[in-house]
Predict the 3D structure of the following.
Amino acid sequence: MDKNTCLKAAEEAMEKGLAHLDVALQSFRTGKASPAILAQVKVDYYGNMSSLNNIANVSILDAHTLQVQPWEKNMVGAIAKAIQEANLGLQPINSGDSVKVPIPTLTEERRKELVKQVKAEAEKAKTVLRNARRDANEQIKKMQKDGFPEDEAKALEADIQKLLDKYTKQLEATIEAKEKDIMTV
């Protein structure tokens, strides 16, 4: 493995960590209707657990209401039940041919609880970033044993640290924006 490959592998691992964080943060509701709120909902579709997005169209009806339009009318009840059981604090309304999901406004207490959950997700992502740095540094040590020059190894470790710093700043900016979004009434 050469220096560029090592650097590229670390960068890819850090990118994946941030991408995973972005996906996780989409499921946090902020009091505004967003189809991403229901992204993690699984529905019993003829004995198989399927993602809601695979069996229905989720759209924004208004600022505080989502509408779930199943592709098969007989799935309305199962979809309403799945949303209810997803532990999202939502009360779906079965309207016969679709499911309406009102998004309640968040209380101050619930907002603070969501911020704590966001921070927990951020810590998981920071761990992924640090693990990517550790893995890269271990690879550098192996390269040194195989004859990689020590001064180049030190420079590469510094580059890896700069990458970590860059992605940590991006992570913190993402978290700060999400916290602001959650706390805005």
Notes: The two ends are 51 Å apart (CA to CA).
